[in-house]
Amino acid sequence: MVPTYSSDEKKIKIKDFELLEVSSGKKKFLRHYFSNKATVIMFICNHCPYVKHINTALIRLVKDFLPKKISFLAINSNDSEKYPEDSPENMKKVYHQLGYPFPYFFDENQEVAKYYRAKCTPEFFIFSGKGNLYYHGQLDDSRPNNDIPVTGYDVRNVLQDILKGKKIYPTVKLSYGCNIKWKT
Q1: 138 domain-assigned
Q2: What is the pLDDT of residues 7-52, one digit of tens each?
Q3: Which of 50, 54, 67, 108 is the most exposed place for a label (fewest CB within 10 A)?
Q4: Are 50 and 143 in contact (CB under 8 A)?
Q5: CA 88 centroid distance within chain
Q6: Could you tell me the residue range of the domain that residue 57 belongs to?
Q7: CA distances for 161 relative to 2, 118, 140, 166, angstroms
Q8: In this structure, what DSSP letter does residue 46 have?
Q9: Is residue 73 part of a domain?
């Protein structure tokens, strides 16, 4: 059985923030990347081995769904002073090296991670076009060294159901990875 939302998670709605988008070096509003069909907000970072493990499959998944009017945006909320690999300059390098097909934002004040109650990287939030939370959790069951292929199964299935017009029952499937590096 997949856990359903807690009462706190039911209250999470998609929300606009203005953050540094690292490829352009400019502050941009997240709302400019929201879709009327569905929006996936991903908490990722550069240094986490769990994110590195899924990057190739994540890019493939995004490329599969972007033409279908699903939007994706990634946010790094880590303390870049303690984890310089996660600085905006290094985020920009990773963005270009990997060819991310989605905007990559830096959450310097960690306000976005706190609002969404993000706990780790990678962690995914899928919102309806109306801003309701459909899914919160992992990409799939693959982890570094567990020999399960990275497919994006959990996120992919929710997105396919959205595109098919199926009734979505909001679910949580706990994400597993590196905890967000909070400022002290």
Answers
A1: yes
A2: 455 579 999 999 999 999 999 999 999 999 999 999 999 999 999 9
A3: 67
A4: yes
A5: 17
A6: 7-179
A7: 16, 24, 16, 5
A8: S
A9: yes
